Amino acid sequence: MHVRKIFIAGLCLLFLAVNSLAFAEDVYITQNGKKYHKADCRFIKDRETQKIDKQEAIQQGHVPCQKCYSEDLAAEKNSNVNEKTTKSKKTKNQKDG
Ligand SMILES: [Zn+2]
């Protein structure tokens, strides 16, 4: 019985560890910049940067760089477009029906 409890507790800890790892993402900010960047962004190549946690960067009021986070931003836009597309499809179906 005791072994089983320890096993479950271990699983919970592992789950938490994996979760926190998935959310911990390092980003790079410049001294006066309002945006955070990925390590390989060309905007910060020749600049002095500070590596901080993404969550912390957001809390400090930083926004994602449009160059290196274009994928993230596009994904957000795409999800909106998809919603609209679904809606327009429904309208078409209604017309057809
Ligand atoms: Zn960038």
Model regions low in confidence, pLDDT < 50 over at least 5 residues: none
List the ions, cofactors and other small molecules found in this model: zinc ion
The amount of beta strand, in percent, is 15-25%
Count of helices? 3
What structural class do helix, strand and pairing data support? Answer: alpha+beta
Report on the biggest sheet. 4 strands, mixed
Order of helices and strands: HEEEHEH
Tell me, rounded to a whole number, the average pLDDT: 80
General form? flat
**Strand order, largest beta sheet:** 3-1-2-4
Radius of gyration: 21 Å
Helix content: 55-70%
Q: How far apart are the first and last residues' alpha carbons, in Å?
A: 62 Å
| Strand tally | 4
Explain what this protein looks like in three dimensions.
This protein is α+β, with helices and mostly antiparallel strands and 97 residues long. It has a domain at 25-77. It is 57% helix and 15% strand. It is built from three helices and four strands; from the N terminus they run αβββαβα. It has helices at residues 2-23, 54-59, 70-96, and strands at residues 26-30, 35-37, 49-53, 63-64. It has a four-stranded mixed beta sheet with strand order 3-1-2-4. A hairpin with a 4-residue loop joins strand 1 (26-30) and strand 2 (35-37). The structure holds zinc ion. The site of zinc ion has 6 residues, from loops.
Could you provide a short overview of the structure?
The protein is of the alpha+beta class. The protein is 57% helix and 15% strand.
